[in-house]
Design a protein that fits this description.
heterodimer; A: alpha/beta; D-Maltodextrin-Binding Protein, domain 2; 2 domains; 14 helices; 15 strands; B: mainly alpha; MetI-like fold
């Protein structure tokens, strides 16, 4: 054998090729047979990018505890709403509530209502890059709106100065940074500006993407954070986690009660407490510019979108069990990942909402 | 005599200098062409190497806050996706290419050729949306199958056109020899023409597969992605590219680094693929070319 290969090398080569072919073939067969095996119970969901991190933490933990797989992919709030209407997912997720028209469309197409279950809360922070001015710049809603409208163009504008008497504000133009893509973060931010500024509401309005009067666009939170980091004299809005991760400063915002509030988990939860007194029944509520002494004004819920009636009984049971888990144990993971946990009153409201989920019209048996 | 020698020397030097200058320019052009590649390799290797270990290949992704973990599901997912894509795209591409070169000298042939060229220019995200509408919405489920179909659509034009061009290079005398022996045309095409052109076709397949392996956009709305181990073709499936997309923009340094490693693994995977093709298509008989 050895001799042969020495004198006729081409034979050895074809031998290798043959072996590789065999390996390929067997790999292929293994792949096919493994895909035939019975899959574990898995629920698929898609939607908002903002809660992606905590949802992944939850679903990993939940799998460890129960073995049930919740697969979540962040494709954006708009995408999540679209998928739940089309019925291509078992659950959706969004940072902005579905509109009445979307709910009607879903009811028509899917034959069941869609429930909004708030899961955690987040803060949209106003970040800035201003050399010589440290952290803790103070701003209020009307000034912020005028900056984003292009009315205030310099950092040493007297209205900004009035709120920051101890800061040495430079004579420098303000560079506005905003999101270029559709986003729940933008919804929360523009919803706030619409509440505090009539001009903003009529000229620009609220939405997941709006036509910005001034400024540079960045894709995603990471894009805006990058813009702020690179551009001196810039201001923009990002989620809290991104500001912390990128080591950029963020402003304290003046709330309804007239206090300047730094965005923290407590001040976001306080905003939800302020809003929970008059929560609507479907839990679709905005908590921007909320009441309360310590409320941070640019806060928002993020929701899971769930079918009220799920066809598959085992999936429905898993969903309900998971939602209850998220309301209890799940909340404890929030702060370490830069999310604010739900206040107790809201958890109570959510649980009563979860209890109405049915499968094929029948109540879910949790035992 | 002396004068002639001087002119001769002058001409010789002129030629030598021209040669040298032109040679230099070609070398510069080659460098310019490969420098981006070198940079890509340099950055992905230098940034990705820190997380490249056995765990990356055999472990599942870890949740936020726990370092380590791997992307075993994404590596297998990418292989399954290009497997499905290739399973559909390769036969269709080869057959279409064979048709075009052997039987396609008519109006229908030029129409197909034109449409293939148009298809190869369609942005991959559009192909993803098409697969979403055709597969995901009717099936009411994101699935590896939908992702594979999207990748197959992307592969088909590349494979079709390469196959056609390569088969055209097969000398006519070979076909005539086959036909002269009384072999039917289909047999000649299958056993002589395709066999002769196999090496070139394999290159086309490789190009198609590599392009598919590196695609993110068509997978976002078809294969979706999966945090867990899944090999079922009817469930959403993980892929390296979608992981890179997600991890690169996350606000966690750990994940950003893993995205680099995933990029490195993807490059290695494609290199391995092309190596395998090289071995597979190596000639059985030593030629002295």
């Amino acid at each position: 054998m050895l001799n042969k290969t020495k004198t006729r090398p081409h034979l050895a080569e074809s031998c290798i090729a043959g072996k590789i072919k065999k390996v390929f073939l067997s790999l292929f067969l293994v792949m096919i047979s493994s895909s035939m095996t019975f899959a574990q119970l898995q629920l698929n969901g898609a939607g908002a990018t903002f809660p992606y991190v905590i949802y992944m933490k939850w679903f990993d933990e939940y799998k460890k505890e129960t073995g049930i797989q919740f697969n979540y992919q962040s494709i954006g709030s708009g995408g999540g709403i679209r998928q739940i209407i089309e019925g291509t997912v078992d659950f959706g997720a969004s940072d902005g509530p579905m509109s009445d028209q979307q709910l009607k469309e879903a009811l028509q197409k899917r034959g069941t209502e869609i429930l909004h279950i708030p899961t955690v809360m987040g803060a949209v922070v106003v970040s800035y890059n201003l050399p010589g001015v440290g952290k803790g710049l103070n701003l209020d809603g009307s000034v912020l709106a005028d900056i984003f409208l292009g009315k205030i163009t310099k950092w040493n504008d007297k209205r900004i100065k009035a709120m920051n008497p101890n800061k040495n504000l430079p004579d420098r133009y303000i560079v506005v940074a905003h999101r270029s893509d559709g986003s729940g973060t933008t919804y929360i931010f523009t919803d706030y500006l619409s509440k505090v500024s009539k001009t903003w509401e009529t000229k620009v309005g609220r939405g997941t993407s709006v036509s910005w009067p001034v400024g540079l666009g960045g894709k995603g939170n990471e894009g805006v954070a990058g813009l702020i980091k690179q551009t001196e004299g810039s201001i923009g809005y990002v989620e809290l986690a991104y500001a912390v991760q990128n080591n950029i400063f963020y402003a304290s915002m003046k709330n309804r009660a007239g206090n300047f509030i730094e965005p923290t988990f407590n001040s976001v939860t306080a905003a939800a407490e302020g809003a929970s007194k008059n929560m609507p029944k479907d839990l679709r509520v905005s908590i921007t510019n909320a009441e309360g002494k310590n409320s941070y004004p640019i806060s928002g819920f993020t929701w899971l979108l769930i079918y009220k009636d799920m066809k598959d009984a085992s999936k429905a049971t898993a969903m309900v069990k998971f939602l209850n888990w998220a309301m209890e144990k799940g909340q404890s993971f929030a702060t370490s990942l830069y999310y604010a946990p739900l206040p107790k009153e809201v958890v109570k409201l959510c649980k009563s909402k979860i209890a109405v989920i049915t499968s094929g019209g029948k109540k879910i048996n949790l035992k | 005599m002396e004068k002639e020698l001087a002119t001769f020397k002058f001409r010789l030097w002129r030629r030598k200098i021209t040669n040298f200058v032109m040679m230099g320019l070609t070398v510069v052009a080659v460098l310019v062409a490969i420098i981006p590649l070198i940079f890509i390799f340099y950055y992905t290797i230098s940034k990705g190497i820190t997380y490249l270990n056995l765990d990356f290949f055999i472990q599942m992704p870890k949740p936020v806050g726990e370092s380590g973990g791997g992307m075993a599901n994404a590596i297998v997912g990418t292989l399954i996706l290009i497997g499905i894509g290739g399973g559909i795209g390769i036969p269709v591409g080869i057959m279409a290419g064979t048709y075009l070169s052997e039987f396609g000298n008519n109006k229908f042939g030029s129409l197909v050729r034109f449409l293939t060229d148009v298809l190869s220019g369609v942005p991959s995200i559009v192909v993803g949306v098409v697969a979403y509408t055709l597969v995901v919405v009717p099936m009411k489920h994101f699935s590896a199958l939908a992702g594979g179909i999207a990748l197959a659509i992307l592969m088909i034009p590349t494979i079709t056109r390469t196959t056609e061009e390569i088969i055209k290079l097969v000398p006519h005398s070979l076909r005539e020899a086959g036909l002269a022996l009384g072999i039917p045309k289909w047999k000649t095409t299958l056993l002589i023409v395709l066999k002769t052109a196999w090496k070139g076709i394999a290159t086309g397949i490789l190009l198609g597969l590599s392009r598919a392996a590196g695609e993110t956009a068509p997978l976002l709305f078809t294969a979706l992605g999966n945090r867990f181990w899944s090999t079922s073709i009817f469930q959403p499936i993980a892929s390296l590219t979608v992981y890179i997309y997600d991890y690169a923009k996350a606000p966690f340094e750990d994940w950003n680094n893993q995205a680099w490693t995933a990029a490195l693994v993807l490059i290695l995977l494609i290199s391995l693929l092309s190596l395998l093709f090289k071995i597979l298509t190596r000639s059985k008989y030593k030629t002295n070319r």
